[in-house]
């Protein structure tokens, strides 16, 4: 086992090696600050990621220069500059494909009744690192000396090697300064596979209600980062086990109260995490990590607690939980300030997630296939993944049967897609033709006729304009409509 000093030496070498590709950008930026009489250090996540060999194009720096000074320096140095974070000490710039954020040494804290942090600028990198969220993010590379100096005042390298998340000082002080850090603990567990120091877990459990002062937008962003991580289950477990989820996604821990009616898992909560895992394993069909399918997988059963009914003789049922769950999903995602399309897409998938099972094990008719595709709209592949992921039975024979049945459905869809372009199902006559044939003006009646023809198209497939016209006239005759 390497000594702490050996670990720091190795970490410094790894970080510097990872920075080679960006040497020109970093060196020129450091030179600009040094020439102006200021210090500059690479800090936080980029240092951590450089050591881990996963450095990206976004680089964070800290300096003793005040925001106005950084603005002057970066205007000369960069190709573009952003001052939107100036009030918090941060000025951003872009050069040669890299984005840099330079922040004045600072300490910040939240008033117990305010959602906006109070920012105080400092003059020491020691004080700046001490106020960082976790030790693995409190490492820095000072760049304006004779040679780069690796700074690790709180043994972040050791924690990185042990994959343990700790705070530089007291966890309670850190989370009091910025309660969103409690969610970041879960996010880093999910992103990096870290375990939490017991002091962090205890502090979150005690202070979870402090999350209520954080804006919905910031909470949403941390939640999304966690959900889109390599192992979201780890982060979600932190949120639920510490009570933190109660303050932004209370429906998730409530699933722990419900027993899976098929007794495959100890509770619906565990089932939901398994569905999420299985959906992630299939999301290459969507081109990679996909927020819509992950949200739908996590939330697909949140309607169960409200629809739980005991069955005489034992067992429980959750009739229409997909309908209730869809409404609950829409409400929760809106409160978290997700965009309208995300809200609508995830709610629709929750609503449809049982549709496949509604057809039983019988042969799928062409009409049933058309309805399935029409209802899924542009989320058909998402629905395929969600339906497959929702099979968590431990009975291999039953799992194989369900998989084969769904294989058959996808084959039927593919066959009809070739014949009829199912994704573009429309009646054989449009609104203008309907009005012309029936001799009517724009009115609700046109919509009724359109719906009739669409239903006919789904039931019988393409009719052609002539046959569709005959059917439309029969429909109108039955309703005693037509040309006057």
Structure description:
The chain has 484 residues and is α+β, with helices and mostly antiparallel strands. The protein folds into four domains: 4-162, Beta Polymerase, domain 2; 164-248, Hydrophobic Seed Protein, CATH 1.10.110; 257-425, Hypothetical protein af1432, CATH 1.10.3210; 426-478. Helix content is 54%, strand content 11%. It is built from 24 helices and 13 strands. The chain has a seven-stranded mixed β-sheet with strand order 3-4-5-2-1-8-9. Helix 8 packs parallel to helix 10 (216-227), helix 14 crosses helix 20 and helix 16 (321-335) runs antiparallel to helix 17. The chain is elongated and about 90 Å long. The model has no long low-confidence stretch (mean pLDDT 86).
| Percentage of residues in helical conformation | 40-55%
Number of strands: 13
Distance between the termini: 94 Å
Widest beta sheet: strand line-up: 3-4-5-2-1-8-9
Key descriptive features of the protein:
Hypothetical protein af1432, single chain, seven-stranded mixed sheet, Beta Polymerase, domain 2, alpha+beta, Hydrophobic Seed Protein, 11% strand
Task: Describe the structure concisely.
This protein is of the alpha+beta class and 484 residues long.
How are the elements arranged and paired?
Layout (H helix, E strand, L loop, with lengths): L3 H15 L4 H13 L4 E4 L1 H8 L5 E6 L3 H11 L2 E3 L7 E6 L2 E7 L1 E5 L6 E5 L3 H6 L8 E4 L6 E4 L3 H7 L1 E2 L5 H7 L2 H13 L2 E2 L1 H10 L8 H12 L4 H10 L9 H4 L13 H15 L8 H9 L4 H4 L1 E2 L5 E2 L3 H15 L4 H13 L2 H4 L7 H11 L3 H10 L6 H25 L10 H8 L5 H17 L4 H14 L6
Parallel strand pairs: 2-5, 10-11
Antiparallel strand pairs: 1-2, 1-8, 3-4, 4-5, 6-7, 8-9, 12-13
Helix pairs in contact: 1-3, 2-4, 7-9, 8-10, 8-11, 13-14, 13-20, 14-17, 14-20, 16-17, 19-21
């Amino acid at each position: 086992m390497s000594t702490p000093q050996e670990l720091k030496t190795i970490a410094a070498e790894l970080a510097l090696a990872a920075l080679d590709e960006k040497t020109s950008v970093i060196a020129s930026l450091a030179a600009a600050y040094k020439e102006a009489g200021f210090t500059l250090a690479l800090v936080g996540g980029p240092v951590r990621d450089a050591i881990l060999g996963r450095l990206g194009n976004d680089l964070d720096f800290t300096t003793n220069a005040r925001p106005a000074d950084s603005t002057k320096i970066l205007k000369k140095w960069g190709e573009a500059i952003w001052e939107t974070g100036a009030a918090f000490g941060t000025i951003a710039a872009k050069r040669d494909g890299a984005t840099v954020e330079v922040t004045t040494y600072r300490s910040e804290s939240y008033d117990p009744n305010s959602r906006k942090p109070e920012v105080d600028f400092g003059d020491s990198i020691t004080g700046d690192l001490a106020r960082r969220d976790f030790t693995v993010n409190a490492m820095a590379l000072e760049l304006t000396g004779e040679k780069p100096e690796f700074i690790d005042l709180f043994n972040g390298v050791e924690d990185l090697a042990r994959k343990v998340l700790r705070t530089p000082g007291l966890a309670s002080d850190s989370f009091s300064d910025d309660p969103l850090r409690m969610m970041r603990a879960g996010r880093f567990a999910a992103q990096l596979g870290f375990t939490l120091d017991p002091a962090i877990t205890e502090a979150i459990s005690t202070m979870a209600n402090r999350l209520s002062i954080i804006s919905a937008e910031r909470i949403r962003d941390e939640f999304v980062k966690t959900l889109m991580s390599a192992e979201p289950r780890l982060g979600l477990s932190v949120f639920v086990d510490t009570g933190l989820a109660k303050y932004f996604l209370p429906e998730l821990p409530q699933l722990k109260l419900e027993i899976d009616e098929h007794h495959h898992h100890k509770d619906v909560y565990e089932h939901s995490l398994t569905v999420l895992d299985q959906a992630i394993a299939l999301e290459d069909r969507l081109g990679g990590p996909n927020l819509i399918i992950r949200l739908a997988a996590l939330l697909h059963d949140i309607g169960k607690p409200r629809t739980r009914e005991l069955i005489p003789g034992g067992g429980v049922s959750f009739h229409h939980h997909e309908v209730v769950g869809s409404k609950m999903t829409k409400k929760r995602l809106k409160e978290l300030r997700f965009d309208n399309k995300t809200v609508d897409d995830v709610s629709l998938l929750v609503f449809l997630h049982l549709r496949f099972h509604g057809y039983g094990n019988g042969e799928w008719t062409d009409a049933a296939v058309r309805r399935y595709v029409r209802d899924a709209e542009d989320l058909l592949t998402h629905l395929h993944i969600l339906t497959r992921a929702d099979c968590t039975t431990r009975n291999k024979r039953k799992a194989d049967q369900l998989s084969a049945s769904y294989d058959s459905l996808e084959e039927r869809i593919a066959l009809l897609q070739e014949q009829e372009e199912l994704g573009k199902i429309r009646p054989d006559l449009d609104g203008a033709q309907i009005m012309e044939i029936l001799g009517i003006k724009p009115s609700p009646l046109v919509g009724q006729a359109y719906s009739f023809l669409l239903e006919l198209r789904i039931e019988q497939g393409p009719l052609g304009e002539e046959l569709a016209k005959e059917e439309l006239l029969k429909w109108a005759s039955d309703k005693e409509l037509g040309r006057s």
